[in-house]
Amino acid sequence: MINKQALVDRFLRYVEIDTQADDTVNDKFPSTDKQLVLSNLLVDELKAMGVKDASIDEFGYVMATVPSNLDKEVPTIGFLAHVDTAPDMLGKNVKPRLIENYDGQDIPLNPNVSITVKDFPEILAYKGQTLIVTDGTTLLGADDKAGIAEIMTAVEYMMTHPEFKHGKIRIGFTVDEEIGRGVNHFNVEKFNANFAYTVDGGRLGELEYENFNAAGAKIFVQGRNIHPGYAKDKMKNAILIAQEFNSMLPANERPENTEHYQGFYHLIKIDGTVEQASFQYIIRDHDRTIFEARKQKMVEIAEFLNQKYGEGTIKLELTDQYFNMREKVEPVYHIVEKAIKAMEAVGVKPLVKPIRGGTDGSRLSYMGLPCPNLFAGGENFHGKHEYIAVESMVKATEVILKIAELYATE
To answer: What is the pTM of this model?
Structure first.
């Protein structure tokens, strides 16, 4: 039986450590040293459990092995999660709070912020359960410290229950996942698993083996600042040109207007003066052909505005980030089927759906390690309305163990 209190205690301990990544830092990996505080702690905790080879490398990756206790060869399975939290929401001084036996009403986080049933009706599914919430000033960090706590609790169970049969289990904790660099230096050969699962999904039952194709776009606008009293036919307002660029993208293809398999352009940052402006997008689509067309649309807009305002007005930088893992997972679809069977065995209804985002697993799949994504249990990731049910965390841990058991016994 899972030690629920140990699971909760781990999670609460982990979320109080500031591990926010920084997408403005390009000359170091990981982007912030504070991520290593949690990574080193995890190594210490694994060793205390008896996982002798737990280690951290020069890039901050944690790897460890739970040895097989079988007398036969079975596939080596990996479980992974990431230590960092999102760069665009405060992750420092997180103050988690437990709400036992949730009554189905609005949850005040502080005098100014509440999780309301009107805005977040899905919270009613957790009536009667124990929720962990924020104080309304920071994110919670369940993405992905819930995944870490669940993996660590599963490891502890395997290490203390020799009667529980399993093959060789590899554990990996990555850094900088939230800024798209999570596996830039990850050594798949060293990890040495036949396949793996990221424990980085959302609500109870989520199972994903297809995700967005993803790119980032940075646009720089060079304007011309002239005294406004003498600006006619001379001034080029970089801020307004940036707005014009954005207006040429379809308004119905923004995140707030899309769902399921629908892709989008998402303006995530803008800064500027009359003289210079810069702004950034993320570009997403499940369909590779449409994804490429979205990138081409950005190129065409940049070319049009350069013709209109003069060459060099717009500078566009497009960078591919990751691709849809479906192509790499489908040939070994048994890993999805095994996860479905594991969920059903522990009383969880599988929700197989595409990820409207990406995980380390999407890139790892293209690096030779097929890696679908399991739920970690959280809701409203990356914001101050984030919460997670303890019961979902317990089930996630049970699913991890059941997957290991199924591959050992079937």
So the answer is: 0.86
